[in-house]
Design goal:
alpha/beta, Rossmann fold
């Protein structure tokens, strides 16, 4: 399923992480961001070569749209925080960065 692509919703930071990973794995990504997301985060996300869709003023609006896209296009949905793998990654990234320094 991941080979078809990934979809995520974000107000900013999650979008960059998913976009980076998708780019690294060479899978297509669609990121739905709020229309109120900072332009710097929107541009940083686009710089990874992913599709960015601006939808709604609140995270829940973007999240709902992302879920609709994932279902309609049979793509893997990467939740910003309600996913055990995402939580695990967020819990270890600081240690990984520290070890690289």
């Amino acid at each position: 399923m991941i080979a078809k692509g990934v979809v995520a919703a974000s107000a900013g930071n999650h979008s960059k992480g998913v976009s980076f990973a998708a780019n690294l794995l060479k899978v297509p990504a669609t990121i739905v961001m709020t229309q109120t997301a900072p332009i710097s985060k929107i541009n940083a996300t686009r710089n990874y070569g992913v599709e960015v869709i601006l939808h709604g003023d609140f995270f829940d609006d973007a999240n709902k749209k992302a879920l609709e896209i994932a279902k309609a296009e049979d793509k893997f949905f990467v939740h910003a925080f309600n996913d055990i793998d995402v939580i695990s990654g967020q819990g270890t990234i600081g240690i990984e960065i520290f070890e690289e320094l």
